[in-house]
Design a protein that fits this description.
Elements lengths: L33 E2 L22 H5 L2 H6 L9 E2 L10 H15 L6 H12 L2 H9 L6 E3 L3 H11 L7 E5 L4 H14 L2 E5 L8 H7 L4 E7 L11 H11 L2 E5 L16 E5 L11 E5 L1 H6 L16 H5 L28 H17 L1 H19 L4 E3 L11 E5 L3 H12 L3 E2 L1 E5 L2 E7 L6 H17 L1
Parallel strand pairs: 2-12, 4-5, 4-6, 6-7, 7-8
Antiparallel strand pairs: 1-10, 3-9, 8-9, 10-11, 11-14, 13-14
Protein backbone atom coordinates (compact mmCIF):
# COMPACT_ATOMS: atom_id res chain seq x y z
CA UNK A 1 0.00 0.00 0.00
CA UNK A 2 1.71 3.20 -1.13
CA UNK A 3 1.81 6.38 0.87
CA UNK A 4 -0.45 9.15 -0.52
CA UNK A 5 1.13 12.30 -1.78
CA UNK A 6 1.40 15.11 0.74
CA UNK A 7 -0.68 18.23 0.31
CA UNK A 8 0.54 20.89 -2.09
CA UNK A 9 1.71 23.18 0.69
CA UNK A 10 3.93 20.39 1.99
CA UNK A 11 5.96 20.10 -1.19
CA UNK A 12 9.64 20.88 -1.05
CA UNK A 13 10.56 24.51 -1.55
CA UNK A 14 12.65 25.70 -4.47
CA UNK A 15 16.01 27.18 -3.68
CA UNK A 16 16.23 30.93 -4.10
CA UNK A 17 18.97 33.47 -4.36
CA UNK A 18 19.92 35.74 -1.52
CA UNK A 19 22.10 38.84 -1.55
CA UNK A 20 25.85 38.40 -1.63
CA UNK A 21 27.90 38.61 1.53
CA UNK A 22 29.02 42.08 2.48
CA UNK A 23 32.22 43.31 4.01
CA UNK A 24 32.50 42.67 7.72
CA UNK A 25 31.62 45.63 9.91
CA UNK A 26 33.80 47.34 12.45
CA UNK A 27 33.12 45.95 15.91
CA UNK A 28 32.19 48.23 18.79
CA UNK A 29 32.85 47.81 22.49
CA UNK A 30 31.03 48.63 25.65
CA UNK A 31 27.36 48.57 26.60
CA UNK A 32 24.32 50.84 26.80
CA UNK A 33 25.76 53.32 24.30
CA UNK A 34 23.46 56.20 23.44
CA UNK A 35 24.54 57.80 20.17
CA UNK A 36 22.90 60.64 18.30
CA UNK A 37 21.78 60.20 14.70
CA UNK A 38 24.66 60.71 12.35
CA UNK A 39 27.32 60.45 15.07
CA UNK A 40 30.37 58.18 14.95
CA UNK A 41 30.51 58.10 11.17
CA UNK A 42 34.10 57.27 10.43
CA UNK A 43 35.53 57.28 6.97
CA UNK A 44 35.39 53.50 6.73
CA UNK A 45 31.69 53.35 7.62
CA UNK A 46 28.85 53.80 5.17
CA UNK A 47 25.83 56.06 5.61
CA UNK A 48 22.50 54.32 6.18
CA UNK A 49 20.85 53.44 2.92
CA UNK A 50 24.15 52.78 1.13
CA UNK A 51 25.28 49.26 0.34
CA UNK A 52 28.87 48.23 1.06
CA UNK A 53 30.98 46.68 -1.65
CA UNK A 54 30.57 42.99 -2.32
CA UNK A 55 33.28 40.62 -1.22
CA UNK A 56 32.61 38.03 -3.90
CA UNK A 57 30.49 37.19 -6.89
CA UNK A 58 26.81 36.36 -6.41
CA UNK A 59 27.41 32.72 -7.24
CA UNK A 60 30.10 32.39 -4.58
CA UNK A 61 27.85 33.97 -1.96
CA UNK A 62 24.97 31.69 -2.87
CA UNK A 63 27.19 28.67 -2.26
CA UNK A 64 28.12 29.80 1.26
CA UNK A 65 26.98 27.32 3.93
CA UNK A 66 24.65 29.86 5.58
CA UNK A 67 23.09 30.65 2.20
CA UNK A 68 22.29 26.98 1.78
CA UNK A 69 20.80 26.95 5.27
CA UNK A 70 18.76 30.07 4.48
CA UNK A 71 17.30 28.33 1.44
CA UNK A 72 15.68 25.84 3.84
CA UNK A 73 13.27 28.51 5.13
CA UNK A 74 10.56 29.43 2.58
CA UNK A 75 9.07 32.08 4.89
CA UNK A 76 12.09 34.29 4.21
CA UNK A 77 11.01 34.88 0.61
CA UNK A 78 8.45 37.54 1.49
CA UNK A 79 9.62 39.07 4.78
CA UNK A 80 12.56 40.03 6.93
CA UNK A 81 12.16 37.68 9.87
CA UNK A 82 14.05 38.81 12.96
CA UNK A 83 11.84 37.34 15.69
CA UNK A 84 13.13 33.84 16.48
CA UNK A 85 13.17 34.79 20.16
CA UNK A 86 9.35 34.75 20.04
CA UNK A 87 8.23 31.93 17.74
CA UNK A 88 10.56 31.00 14.91
CA UNK A 89 9.89 29.72 11.43
CA UNK A 90 10.26 26.07 10.45
CA UNK A 91 12.53 24.74 7.70
CA UNK A 92 10.99 23.10 4.65
CA UNK A 93 12.41 19.67 5.48
CA UNK A 94 10.57 19.70 8.83
CA UNK A 95 7.37 20.71 7.06
CA UNK A 96 7.77 17.82 4.63
CA UNK A 97 8.49 15.37 7.44
CA UNK A 98 5.40 16.26 9.45
CA UNK A 99 3.24 16.15 6.31
CA UNK A 100 4.56 12.67 5.55
CA UNK A 101 3.84 11.63 9.13
CA UNK A 102 0.32 13.05 8.92
CA UNK A 103 -0.26 11.17 5.67
CA UNK A 104 0.86 7.94 7.33
CA UNK A 105 -1.44 8.59 10.30
CA UNK A 106 -4.40 9.34 8.03
CA UNK A 107 -3.89 6.33 5.75
CA UNK A 108 -1.52 3.88 7.47
CA UNK A 109 0.53 1.72 5.14
CA UNK A 110 1.06 -0.72 8.01
CA UNK A 111 -1.99 -2.90 8.59
CA UNK A 112 -0.84 -4.02 12.03
CA UNK A 113 -1.44 -1.32 14.67
CA UNK A 114 1.43 -2.53 16.85
CA UNK A 115 3.85 -2.29 13.94
CA UNK A 116 2.45 1.17 13.24
CA UNK A 117 3.11 2.25 16.85
CA UNK A 118 6.65 0.90 16.80
CA UNK A 119 7.29 2.74 13.54
CA UNK A 120 6.21 5.98 15.22
CA UNK A 121 8.54 5.26 18.13
CA UNK A 122 11.42 5.01 15.68
CA UNK A 123 10.51 8.37 14.11
CA UNK A 124 10.52 10.06 17.52
CA UNK A 125 13.82 8.41 18.43
CA UNK A 126 15.60 10.42 15.71
CA UNK A 127 15.43 13.59 17.82
CA UNK A 128 17.68 12.83 20.85
CA UNK A 129 20.80 12.06 18.75
CA UNK A 130 20.37 15.40 16.97
CA UNK A 131 20.15 17.19 20.34
CA UNK A 132 23.26 15.35 21.55
CA UNK A 133 25.13 16.37 18.40
CA UNK A 134 24.13 20.01 18.85
CA UNK A 135 25.32 20.08 22.47
CA UNK A 136 28.31 17.75 22.07
CA UNK A 137 27.18 15.37 24.82
CA UNK A 138 26.31 11.65 25.01
CA UNK A 139 22.76 10.88 23.90
CA UNK A 140 22.19 9.11 27.23
CA UNK A 141 22.06 12.56 28.86
CA UNK A 142 19.25 13.81 26.59
CA UNK A 143 15.54 13.71 27.37
CA UNK A 144 12.74 15.10 25.23
CA UNK A 145 10.27 17.48 26.86
CA UNK A 146 7.14 19.20 25.60
CA UNK A 147 8.29 22.72 26.50
CA UNK A 148 10.66 24.69 28.69
CA UNK A 149 7.83 24.84 31.24
CA UNK A 150 7.69 21.06 31.28
CA UNK A 151 11.44 20.75 31.82
CA UNK A 152 11.56 23.41 34.55
CA UNK A 153 8.82 21.62 36.45
CA UNK A 154 10.69 18.32 36.14
CA UNK A 155 13.72 20.01 37.67
CA UNK A 156 11.72 21.69 40.45
CA UNK A 157 10.01 18.44 41.40
CA UNK A 158 13.14 16.27 41.21
CA UNK A 159 15.49 18.29 43.42
CA UNK A 160 15.36 17.10 47.07
CA UNK A 161 14.29 20.22 48.95
CA UNK A 162 14.37 20.86 52.69
CA UNK A 163 12.35 23.45 54.55
CA UNK A 164 14.36 26.67 54.73
CA UNK A 165 16.30 26.00 51.51
CA UNK A 166 16.95 28.96 49.24
CA UNK A 167 16.56 29.08 45.47
CA UNK A 168 18.52 31.85 43.76
CA UNK A 169 17.10 33.69 40.72
CA UNK A 170 17.22 37.19 39.21
CA UNK A 171 14.60 39.78 38.29
CA UNK A 172 15.34 39.62 34.54
CA UNK A 173 13.78 36.19 34.10
CA UNK A 174 10.79 35.36 31.96
CA UNK A 175 8.01 34.69 34.46
CA UNK A 176 7.80 30.96 33.69
CA UNK A 177 11.38 30.46 34.85
CA UNK A 178 10.38 31.62 38.32
CA UNK A 179 6.84 30.21 38.64
CA UNK A 180 7.63 26.53 39.46
CA UNK A 181 10.07 27.55 42.17
CA UNK A 182 7.96 30.35 43.64
CA UNK A 183 4.97 28.00 43.84
CA UNK A 184 7.13 25.26 45.33
CA UNK A 185 8.37 27.75 47.91
CA UNK A 186 4.79 28.24 49.09
CA UNK A 187 4.24 24.51 49.51
CA UNK A 188 7.63 23.33 50.74
CA UNK A 189 8.80 26.25 52.86
CA UNK A 190 11.53 27.41 50.50
CA UNK A 191 12.84 30.95 50.21
CA UNK A 192 13.17 32.40 46.69
CA UNK A 193 15.95 35.01 46.50
CA UNK A 194 15.87 37.42 43.54
CA UNK A 195 19.00 39.33 42.56
CA UNK A 196 18.34 42.77 41.04
CA UNK A 197 19.82 43.60 37.67
CA UNK A 198 21.95 46.57 36.76
CA UNK A 199 21.75 47.72 33.18
CA UNK A 200 19.99 44.58 31.94
CA UNK A 201 22.51 42.13 33.37
CA UNK A 202 23.18 40.04 36.47
CA UNK A 203 26.67 38.60 36.18
CA UNK A 204 27.85 35.15 37.22
CA UNK A 205 30.05 36.73 39.90
CA UNK A 206 26.97 38.30 41.47
CA UNK A 207 25.26 34.92 41.68
CA UNK A 208 28.43 33.41 43.14
CA UNK A 209 28.61 36.12 45.80
CA UNK A 210 24.97 35.52 46.76
CA UNK A 211 25.39 31.77 47.38
CA UNK A 212 24.91 30.72 51.01
CA UNK A 213 24.97 27.36 52.82
CA UNK A 214 21.17 27.35 52.40
CA UNK A 215 21.25 27.75 48.60
CA UNK A 216 19.85 24.50 47.22
CA UNK A 217 19.55 25.60 43.58
CA UNK A 218 20.37 28.43 41.19
CA UNK A 219 17.87 28.96 38.37
CA UNK A 220 18.88 31.21 35.48
CA UNK A 221 18.46 31.80 31.76
CA UNK A 222 21.68 31.42 29.81
CA UNK A 223 20.57 34.37 27.65
CA UNK A 224 18.02 36.84 28.95
CA UNK A 225 14.89 37.23 26.86
CA UNK A 226 14.50 41.02 27.07
CA UNK A 227 18.03 42.45 27.27
CA UNK A 228 19.89 39.69 25.39
CA UNK A 229 22.57 39.43 28.10
CA UNK A 230 24.37 36.05 28.05
CA UNK A 231 25.78 34.89 31.37
CA UNK A 232 29.16 33.21 31.91
CA UNK A 233 27.83 29.69 32.45
CA UNK A 234 31.20 27.99 33.17
CA UNK A 235 31.94 30.50 35.93
CA UNK A 236 28.47 30.09 37.41
CA UNK A 237 28.69 26.29 37.17
CA UNK A 238 32.01 26.30 39.04
CA UNK A 239 30.50 28.42 41.81
CA UNK A 240 27.45 26.16 42.13
CA UNK A 241 29.62 23.06 42.18
CA UNK A 242 31.76 24.48 44.98
CA UNK A 243 28.64 25.38 46.98
CA UNK A 244 26.92 22.05 46.35
CA UNK A 245 23.97 23.80 44.69
CA UNK A 246 22.00 22.42 41.74
CA UNK A 247 22.20 24.55 38.58
CA UNK A 248 19.04 24.79 36.47
CA UNK A 249 19.44 26.64 33.16
CA UNK A 250 16.80 27.79 30.71
CA UNK A 251 18.66 27.84 27.39
CA UNK A 252 15.69 28.51 25.12
CA UNK A 253 17.09 31.90 24.01
CA UNK A 254 20.51 30.48 23.13
CA UNK A 255 20.35 26.85 22.01
CA UNK A 256 20.46 26.70 18.21
CA UNK A 257 22.01 30.14 17.79
CA UNK A 258 25.37 29.90 19.57
CA UNK A 259 26.96 27.01 21.52
CA UNK A 260 25.71 26.34 25.04
CA UNK A 261 28.26 25.27 27.65
CA UNK A 262 26.88 22.17 29.38
CA UNK A 263 29.73 21.29 31.76
CA UNK A 264 28.53 21.61 35.34
CA UNK A 265 24.92 22.40 34.39
CA UNK A 266 22.57 19.93 36.06
CA UNK A 267 19.36 20.69 34.14
CA UNK A 268 19.79 22.38 30.76
CA UNK A 269 16.36 22.97 29.25
CA UNK A 270 15.20 24.48 25.95
CA UNK A 271 11.89 24.55 24.16
CA UNK A 272 12.06 23.95 20.44
CA UNK A 273 9.91 26.74 19.01
CA UNK A 274 12.44 29.56 19.19
CA UNK A 275 16.07 29.30 18.03
CA UNK A 276 15.75 25.57 17.27
CA UNK A 277 13.12 26.42 14.59
CA UNK A 278 10.82 23.58 15.64
CA UNK A 279 7.08 23.66 16.46
CA UNK A 280 5.54 24.51 19.80
CA UNK A 281 5.22 21.54 22.13
CA UNK A 282 8.80 20.38 21.57
CA UNK A 283 12.08 20.70 23.41
CA UNK A 284 14.89 18.93 25.21
CA UNK A 285 16.48 18.58 28.61
CA UNK A 286 20.17 17.71 29.06
CA UNK A 287 20.97 16.22 32.46
CA UNK A 288 24.28 16.03 34.28
CA UNK A 289 25.81 12.79 35.48
CA UNK A 290 25.10 14.03 38.99
CA UNK A 291 21.37 14.19 38.24
CA UNK A 292 21.37 10.76 36.63
CA UNK A 293 23.23 9.23 39.57
CA UNK A 294 21.49 10.97 42.46
CA UNK A 295 17.96 12.06 41.49
CA UNK A 296 14.72 10.38 40.50
CA UNK A 297 11.82 11.87 38.53
CA UNK A 298 8.58 12.76 40.26
CA UNK A 299 6.43 10.94 37.68
CA UNK A 300 6.74 7.59 35.96
CA UNK A 301 5.66 5.99 32.69
CA UNK A 302 5.97 2.52 31.23
CA UNK A 303 8.06 3.74 28.30
CA UNK A 304 10.71 4.82 30.82
CA UNK A 305 11.23 1.23 31.91
CA UNK A 306 13.75 -1.15 30.42
CA UNK A 307 12.15 -2.63 27.28
CA UNK A 308 11.11 -6.26 27.73
CA UNK A 309 12.92 -9.07 25.95
CA UNK A 310 11.69 -9.18 22.38
CA UNK A 311 10.35 -5.62 22.55
CA UNK A 312 6.95 -4.20 23.40
CA UNK A 313 5.27 -5.77 20.38
CA UNK A 314 6.17 -9.24 21.63
CA UNK A 315 5.35 -8.32 25.23
CA UNK A 316 1.75 -7.27 24.57
CA UNK A 317 0.97 -10.57 22.82
CA UNK A 318 2.20 -12.63 25.79
CA UNK A 319 -0.74 -14.10 27.79
CA UNK A 320 1.10 -14.20 31.10
CA UNK A 321 1.94 -10.50 31.47
CA UNK A 322 0.72 -8.73 34.60
CA UNK A 323 1.16 -5.28 36.17
CA UNK A 324 2.01 -7.02 39.46
CA UNK A 325 5.74 -7.09 38.84
CA UNK A 326 9.01 -5.31 39.50
CA UNK A 327 9.75 -2.34 37.25
CA UNK A 328 13.31 -1.52 36.26
CA UNK A 329 13.72 1.95 34.81
CA UNK A 330 16.37 3.03 32.34
CA UNK A 331 19.45 4.70 33.77
CA UNK A 332 19.58 7.35 31.03
CA UNK A 333 17.85 10.74 30.94
CA UNK A 334 14.93 9.06 29.20
CA UNK A 335 13.52 8.08 32.59
CA UNK A 336 12.73 11.77 33.20
CA UNK A 337 10.50 11.93 30.11
CA UNK A 338 6.71 11.58 30.13
CA UNK A 339 7.03 7.85 29.60
CA UNK A 340 3.71 7.61 27.79
CA UNK A 341 2.05 9.14 24.75
CA UNK A 342 4.21 12.10 23.75
CA UNK A 343 4.29 14.71 20.99
CA UNK A 344 5.37 12.44 18.15
CA UNK A 345 4.80 14.93 15.29
CA UNK A 346 6.70 17.59 17.22
CA UNK A 347 9.67 15.30 17.81
CA UNK A 348 9.80 14.45 14.11
CA UNK A 349 9.94 18.17 13.27
CA UNK A 350 12.50 18.83 16.01
CA UNK A 351 14.83 16.19 14.56
CA UNK A 352 14.59 17.67 11.07
CA UNK A 353 15.00 21.25 12.27
CA UNK A 354 18.11 20.28 14.22
CA UNK A 355 19.51 18.57 11.13
CA UNK A 356 19.78 21.99 9.49
CA UNK A 357 21.91 23.60 12.20
CA UNK A 358 23.92 20.42 12.74
CA UNK A 359 24.76 20.21 9.04
CA UNK A 360 25.80 23.86 9.12
CA UNK A 361 27.66 23.34 12.41
CA UNK A 362 26.82 25.28 15.56
CA UNK A 363 30.21 27.04 15.57
CA UNK A 364 29.68 28.27 12.00
CA UNK A 365 26.10 29.25 12.86
CA UNK A 366 27.34 31.21 15.89
CA UNK A 367 29.94 33.04 13.83
CA UNK A 368 27.21 34.09 11.43
CA UNK A 369 24.93 35.21 14.29
CA UNK A 370 27.73 37.21 15.91
CA UNK A 371 28.87 38.83 12.66
CA UNK A 372 25.36 39.93 11.75
CA UNK A 373 24.81 41.11 15.31
CA UNK A 374 27.94 43.26 15.09
CA UNK A 375 26.69 44.73 11.83
CA UNK A 376 23.37 45.54 13.48
CA UNK A 377 24.93 47.06 16.60
CA UNK A 378 27.33 49.16 14.51
CA UNK A 379 24.36 50.58 12.62
CA UNK A 380 22.29 51.17 15.74
CA UNK A 381 25.16 53.09 17.34
CA UNK A 382 24.73 55.73 14.62
CA UNK A 383 21.07 56.20 15.51
CA UNK A 384 19.36 58.01 18.37
CA UNK A 385 18.59 54.82 20.33
CA UNK A 386 19.98 53.18 23.44
CA UNK A 387 21.49 49.73 23.02
CA UNK A 388 20.42 47.29 25.73
CA UNK A 389 22.59 44.34 24.68
CA UNK A 390 26.35 44.01 25.33
CA UNK A 391 28.70 44.38 22.36
CA UNK A 392 31.15 41.64 23.36
CA UNK A 393 30.44 38.17 22.01
CA UNK A 394 31.07 36.55 25.39
CA UNK A 395 27.86 38.12 26.69
CA UNK A 396 25.66 38.03 23.61
CA UNK A 397 23.83 35.41 21.57
CA UNK A 398 21.26 36.33 18.90
CA UNK A 399 19.11 38.89 20.73
CA UNK A 400 19.92 42.57 20.14
CA UNK A 401 17.63 44.98 22.02
CA UNK A 402 17.42 48.74 21.66
CA UNK A 403 15.28 51.44 23.27
CA UNK A 404 13.77 54.42 21.44
CA UNK A 405 13.20 56.49 24.58
CA UNK A 406 9.79 55.33 25.76
CA UNK A 407 7.45 52.35 25.64
CA UNK A 408 5.21 54.26 23.22
CA UNK A 409 8.04 55.02 20.80
CA UNK A 410 9.24 51.40 20.98
CA UNK A 411 5.71 50.27 20.08
CA UNK A 412 5.53 52.74 17.22
CA UNK A 413 8.89 51.54 15.91
CA UNK A 414 7.75 47.90 15.94
CA UNK A 415 4.58 48.88 14.05
CA UNK A 416 6.62 50.89 11.55
CA UNK A 417 8.86 47.89 10.90
CA UNK A 418 5.90 45.49 10.63
CA UNK A 419 4.40 47.74 7.96
CA UNK A 420 7.53 47.09 5.93
CA UNK A 421 7.41 43.30 6.42
CA UNK A 422 10.15 43.36 9.06
CA UNK A 423 9.28 41.12 12.01
CA UNK A 424 10.66 42.06 15.44
CA UNK A 425 9.16 42.25 18.95
CA UNK A 426 8.83 44.55 21.95
CA UNK A 427 9.75 43.04 25.32
CA UNK A 428 10.66 44.25 28.83
CA UNK A 429 11.47 42.83 32.24
CA UNK A 430 12.20 44.98 35.31
CA UNK A 431 12.51 48.06 33.06
CA UNK A 432 15.12 46.38 30.83
CA UNK A 433 14.41 45.81 27.15
CA UNK A 434 12.73 47.59 24.26
CA UNK A 435 12.65 46.67 20.59
CA UNK A 436 13.98 43.13 20.46
CA UNK A 437 15.71 41.96 17.28
CA UNK A 438 16.53 38.26 16.89
CA UNK A 439 19.48 37.68 14.57
CA UNK A 440 19.68 34.05 13.44
CA UNK A 441 21.95 32.09 11.15
CA UNK A 442 19.31 32.14 8.40
CA UNK A 443 19.40 35.93 8.23
CA UNK A 444 21.69 37.87 5.91
CA UNK A 445 23.22 41.32 5.53
CA UNK A 446 20.30 42.61 3.51
CA UNK A 447 17.93 41.77 6.39
CA UNK A 448 20.07 43.82 8.78
CA UNK A 449 20.39 46.75 6.39
CA UNK A 450 16.65 46.86 5.70
CA UNK A 451 15.99 46.95 9.44
CA UNK A 452 18.51 49.75 9.96
CA UNK A 453 17.17 51.79 7.05
CA UNK A 454 13.57 51.39 8.25
CA UNK A 455 14.49 52.27 11.84
CA UNK A 456 16.36 55.37 10.66
CA UNK A 457 13.28 56.37 8.68
CA UNK A 458 11.08 55.93 11.74
CA UNK A 459 13.37 58.05 13.89
CA UNK A 460 13.45 60.83 11.28
CA UNK A 461 9.67 61.10 11.16
CA UNK A 462 8.88 60.57 14.86
Amino acid sequence: MGRPAAAAHCRSSRLFRIPARWRSRQNGAGNHATVGAGARRGGSRRHLGERPAMRSEQGQAASAPWAQARAEFPALRDRVFLDAACVSIMPARAERAVCELAAELARPTRRDATEHHLWMDRQRAAAPPQVARLLGIPVERVALVESTTHGLNIAAQSIPWRRGDEVLLCDLEFLQVAIPFVKLAERAGLRPVFLRHRGGRVEAAEFAAALTPRTRAVVVSSTQWSSGYRIDLPLLADACRSAGAWLVVDAIQQAGAVPVETEGVDFLIAGGHKWLNAPMGTGFMALSERVLNELEPASWGYLNTEPPAGGWGEYFTTPGITPDRRYDFVSSAQRFEIGGTANYPGAVCLAKSLEVVNELGIDRAAERVWQLGERLQAGLRRLDVRLETPFDREHRAGIIAFHCGSRERDSACVRHLAGRDICVAQRYTAQAGGVRVSVHYFNDEDDIDRLLDATAGFLRQS
